[in-house]
Amino acid sequence: xxxxxxxxxxxxxxxxxxxxxxxxxxxxxxxxxxxxxxxxxxxxxxxxxxxxxxxxxxxxxxxxxxxxxxxxxxxxxxxxxxxxxxxxxxxxxxxxxxxxxxxxxxxxxxxxxxxxxxxxxxxxxxxxxxxxxxxxxxxxxxxxxxxxxxxxxxxxxxxxxxxxxxxxxxxxxxxxxxxxxxxxxxxxxxxxxxxxxxxxxxxxxxxxxxxxxxxxxxxxxxxxxxxxxxxxxxxxxxxxxxxxxxxxxxxxxxxxxxxxxxxxxxxxxxxxxxxxxxxxxxxxxxxxxxxxxxxxxxxxxxxxxxxxxxxxxxxxxxxxxxxxxxxxxxxxxxxxxxxxxxxxxxxxxxxxxxxxxxxxxxxxxxxxxxxxxxxxxxxxxxxxxxxxxxxxxxxxxxxxxxxxxxxxxxxxxxxxxxxxxxxxxxxxxxxxxxxxxxxxxxxxxxxxx
Length: 449
Ligand SMILES: Cc1cc2nc3c(=O)[nH]c(=O)nc-3n(C[C@H](O)[C@H](O)[C@H](O)COP(=O)(O)OP(=O)(O)OC[C@H]3O[C@@H](n4cnc5c(N)ncnc54)[C@H](O)[C@@H]3O)c2cc1C
Hints:
It is a single chain. By secondary structure, this protein is of the alpha/beta class. It contains eleven helices and 25 strands. The protein has helices at about 10-25, 45-50, 65-70, 135-145, 160-175, 195-205, 305-320, 350-355, 405-415, 420-425, 440-445; strands at about 5-10, 30-35, 75, 80-85, 90-95, 100-105, 110, 115, 130, 155-160, 175-180, 210-215, 220-225, 225-235, 235-240, 240-245, 250, 280-285, 290-295, 300, 335, 340-345, 360-365, 380-385, 390-400. It has a five-stranded parallel sheet with strand order 3-2-1-7-18. The chain has a five-stranded parallel sheet with strand order 9-16-10-11-12. The longest helix is centred in the last third of the chain and has 15 residues, at about 305-320. The radius of gyration is 23 Å and the shape is globular. The chain binds flavin-adenine dinucleotide.
């Protein structure tokens, strides 16, 4: 009998695992259960789809159902796994089309169920019409339909994390005006340090159609005939036509609650560097799982597509006895808001404090390129490094040009435990349209003492 693999959840991590496993061994019997009717798509495209940067929703789909069928991977959409019996190696499934229930058994199980949006329960009328999330494919379709309506002129975004801020660009692109409510004192608090977020906040505050409200939280969505007409906060009341909630996500692991699988408090399944859980023959990856952090040398919850794809692929290899170990995440991530781009990798200063690391930082302003070639812009960099060894632990950059892709170079430096001294003399490329003879990264390395 061929080895039987069941994958629960058919997007980035799940389909990467299924495809890689099958490519390595054509004889594997692989079934993917996915509760929606879309597979192998990229949520990262959603803000740009919603903002009408492109029209065809199918371009967000990486590989189609037919392509997987050709590879002999059985994909069962609209099938929800409701329970798993790890001892008997069985999963219990509901066919959502006809509500029938059945069971299936596995030799190896891959749990890649992702995460769902969390909506703050204390906001009154949160279930009203014209209140949206931006997480699932269906969320994107519904939100875009409303956003394209001319009568919806003003949008309120609750939560200024990556998704909320990317949505701001989408709304502005469609000529809307936007109010952002952030309950804490600054935006992107978990992922960027204050030197970077201050620059982004200033940029948002100076935009004619954006109104940023820090230290302000929504109490009630005002409605008329169940439709949004305004929003009441702890400080004021505003008129608004639509509300988008982007206040965080939670791993989809409720269905495993009464099992012995190890999870963090937030429900993320704990995995090792091979993608294995504490249950024999059970793997997990992506937004429903933890990931090993290369700087902190411990498991963290950093839900990103980059990680989901890499760990999914690694599980596909390890199902085939490759014994591959994940090199670790650095939480490298990027964000664009209108003209401004920001990137980060490694740990922030806040994380250094929380983890009792003896650190120093350097923050400098420079430029992206020479003055005489058109297009010079200000560029900012922050480095976090170990005080004694000078090993670089984290980096963040922001500017209108050239911030994000430089962060990739710093990710390589961090993973390889390079020091600020190394960075000072690193042979980065130079030509007038791209940089200066001493690139901002060299300068930061040399300024760091
Ligand atoms: C708007 C937006 C923008 C983003 N931008 C970026 C970006 O620029 N860069 C980046 O790195 N990341 C980005 N991300 C994050 C990225 O999309 C996720 O990290 C990635 O989708 C995680 O993949 P996954 O396979 O773990 O989970 P998911 O994509 O969530 O897929 C899990 C699947 O499992 C299914 N499922 C859940 N429970 C069950 C069950 N019981 N039975 C059957 N099926 C089930 C779900 O229906 C879902 O389809 C963005 C996310 C959003 C929402």
